[in-house]
């Protein structure tokens, strides 16, 4: 299947627009990841910060609090529907592979669980480097390998079993889950002082329905495609997910412990 970058971006944008404010509510399960990424960014008062793939602005709000009134935090996302959820922030809808900012505009660039969704990650990383000041810092996070991210892989494995291949090819969200591969991609885009560490977190759900809805509320383009399925296919997926979740059963529901990689790097 050939990959159509423009079509993929349209689907992602439509999906995240569809999700709207539900994404913000669902992202609470990953709040500790935002805390870890903000700590890695080493923010300080007066800095100018760009948060890419910002969604409803969870990271951007944390950055705004850290840089204070003398600084600036800008939320940027391809989805206008997501940015509408953060009217309290400076925000701009933009394609991360072609940013509308001048060279060396920011002290920090953040990208939480977003790099995997840029079709041309090298173009995106080069744009992040371009808008960073020479002494600036990039701080990003990506999902670990599939076997270490049951929070997402449980749903995706059911989709692979029950559904035909998607009409719009999607880059794997686990493609940077190996730390050495992530470091290689960063170095190829002219970053140095690369540091990567794993961060594990646990998400809890009261039942299988809560897990499945949580996945849909975070899934963007995948959620857009799933919304177009016949009702019987959607029901079959829900049943399969419930069966696959049994291995994560815990008191009061399910607990899924997953891994992300948190990376920092400086422009060469």
Calculate the mean pLDDT score and round it: 92
Number of helices: 11
Percent of residues in β-strands: 15-25%
Order of helical and strand elements: HHHEHEHEEHEHHEHHHEE
CATH architect. name of the domain at 5-146 and 169-203 and 259-267 = 3-Layer(aba) Sandwich
* Assigned CATH class of the domain at 5-146 and 169-203 and 259-267: Alpha Beta
Task: Characterise the protein shown here.
- The chain has 268 residues and is an alpha/beta fold.
- It has a domain of 186 residues: 3-Layer(aba) Sandwich (Rossmann fold).
- Helix content is 40%, strand content 25%.
- It has 11 helices and 8 strands.
- Strands 1, 2, 3, 4, 5, 6, 7 and 8 form an 8-stranded mixed β-sheet that branches.
- Strand 7 and strand 8 form a beta hairpin.
- Helix 7 packs across helix 11.
- The longest helix has 15 residues.
- The chain is globular.
- The relative contact order is 0.17.
- The mean pLDDT is 92.
What features would you highlight for this structure?
single chain, 268 residues, alpha/beta, Rossmann fold, eight-stranded mixed sheet, 8 strands, globular
In short:
It contains eleven helices and eight strands. The protein is of the alpha/beta class.
Set out the fold topology.
Layout: H1 5-19, H2 22-26, H3 31-41, E1 48-52, H4 58-67, E2 72-77, H5 80-83, E3 90-93, E4 106-112, H6 121-131, E5 132-143, H7 150-162, H8 179-188, E6 191-205, H9 208-216, H10 221-226, H11 231-244, E7 249-250, E8 253-267
Parallel strand pairs: 1-2, 1-4, 2-3, 4-5
Antiparallel strand pairs: 5-8, 6-8, 7-8
């Amino acid at each position: 299947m050939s990959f159509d970058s423009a079509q993929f971006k349209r689907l992602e944008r439509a999906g995240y627009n569809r999700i709207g404010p539900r994404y913000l509510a669902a992202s609470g399960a990953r709040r500790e990841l935002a805390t870890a990424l903000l700590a890695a960014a080493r923010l300080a008062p007066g800095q100018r910060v760009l948060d890419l793939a910002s969604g409803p602005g969870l990271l951007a709000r944390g950055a705004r609090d850290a840089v204070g009134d003398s600084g600036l935090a800008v939320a940027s996302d391809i989805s206008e529907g997501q940015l509408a959820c953060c009217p309290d922030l400076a925000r701009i809808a933009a394609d991360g592979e072609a940013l509308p900012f001048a060279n060396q505009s920011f002290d920090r660039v953040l990208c939480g669980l977003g790099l995997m969704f840029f079709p041309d990650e090298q173009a995106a990383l080069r744009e992040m480097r371009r808008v960073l000041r020479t002494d600036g810092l990039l701080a990003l996070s990506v999902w670990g390998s599939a076997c270490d991210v049951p929070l997402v892989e449980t749903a995706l494995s059911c989709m692979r079993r029950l559904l035909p291949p998607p009409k719009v090819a999607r880059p794997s969200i686990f493609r940077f889950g190996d730390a050495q591969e992530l470091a290689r991609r960063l170095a190829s885009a002219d970053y140095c002082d690369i540091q990567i560490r794993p961060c594990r977190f646990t998400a809890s759900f009261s039942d299988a329905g809560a897990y499945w809805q949580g996945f849909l509320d975070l899934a963007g383009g995948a959620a857009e495609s799933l919304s177009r399925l016949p009702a019987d296919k959607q029901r079959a997926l829900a049943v399969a997910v419930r069966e696959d979740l049994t291995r994560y059963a815990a008191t009061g529901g399910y607990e899924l412990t997953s891994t992300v990689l948190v990376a920092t790097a400086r422009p060469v």
